[in-house]
Amino acid sequence: MSRLFWLTEEQVERIAPLFPKERGVGRADDRKVLSGTIYVIKNGLQWVDAPSEYGPHKTLYNRFKRWSENGVFERIFEELAKPQNDAGNVLMIDATHLKAHRTASSLKKGGDEPRLIGRTKGGLNTKLHALCDNLGRPVRLHLTEGQRSDFKGADVILKDLPKAETLIGDRGYDSNKIRKMLEEQKIAPCIPPKKNRKETIEYCKVTYKTRHKVENLFAKLKDWRRIATRYDRCAHTFRSAIYLAAIIIFWL
C-alpha cells in the first residue's frame, strides 16, 4: 500500500475557489502538486527528493514559492479559520521556538521582508505565536525573531479578536497593556500574575488547566519536520509551510 499523501477530491474542492485563476497555459494538476508539497513539508525532505509520483520537483517548489509570495496559503487559512459555531467562548494564546537549520540561518539583512530569525540561548531560531479556539484549532498565527518576548507578539494577534468571553495565557502575557487590550474588547483574561506583581490578581485555575490545548497545537505542528526545523531562508515560505500544515491538520 502506498504511503504517499494524497488530498481527497472533497478537500481540494473545498479550497479550490481560493486558488489563483489560471492564465495562459493550464497549470499542473492542483491535487497532485499540493499533495506533493504537503508530503515534502511533513517529511522534512529536500524538494529534489520528492517522489516522482507527484511530478517534477521543480514544479512543486516553484508553485509553493509563487503561491507563498502571493499569500495564497494565508488566505486559505484565514478563510477556513473564520469563527465557527463550535468554537466556544474561550481563546488561548502561547508561543514556541522553532529551530533554524544552518541552511536557513543566514542573518543577512536586506530584502523586502526580514528573515525573522533571531539568536537566543538555544541558538538561532524563529518564534511562532498562536491563538487558538476552545477546540485547540489555530485561528491566528504570527512569526517573530526568536528573542522577541511573548507579549510583543501578542500585540499583533490580540488586536480585534473574534467574539469570546475569556482568553487564557501563561504568566508571560501578564502585562497591564495586554489586560487593558482585552478589557477594551470585553474579554476576561485568565492569566496568572507574575511573581513580582505587587497587587493580587485572581484567575480561574480550573479554566486555566485547559491551556494544554494550545500546547497540543504546537506539538501537532511540530510533527511536520520542515516546521519543527526551519529550512527556509525566506520568512514568507516558512510562514506558508506553517499555514499549510495548520490547514491540513485542523481545518480540512
Shape: globular
Helix content: 25-40%
Task: Indicate the radius of gyration in whole angstroms.
Answer: 19 Å
Enumerate the spans where pLDDT stays under 50 for 5 or more consecutive residues: none
Count structural domains. 2
Main pleated sheet: 7 strands, mixed
What secondary-structure arrangement, pairings included, does this model have?
Layout: H1 9-15, H2 30-43, H3 57-69, H4 72-80, E1 90-100, E2 118-120, E3 123-132, E4 138-145, H5 150-157, E5 166-168, H6 176-184, E6 188-190, H7 205-208, H8 212-222, H9 225-228, E7 229-230, H10 235-251
Parallel strand pairs: 1-5, 1-7, 5-6
Antiparallel strand pairs: 1-3, 2-3, 3-4
Quick gist of this model?
The chain has 252 residues and is α/β, with parallel strands linked by helices. The protein has helices spanning 9-15, 30-43, 57-69, 72-80, 150-157, 176-184, 205-208, 212-222, 225-228, 235-251, and strands at 90-100, 118-120, 123-132, 138-145, 166-168, 188-190, 229-230.
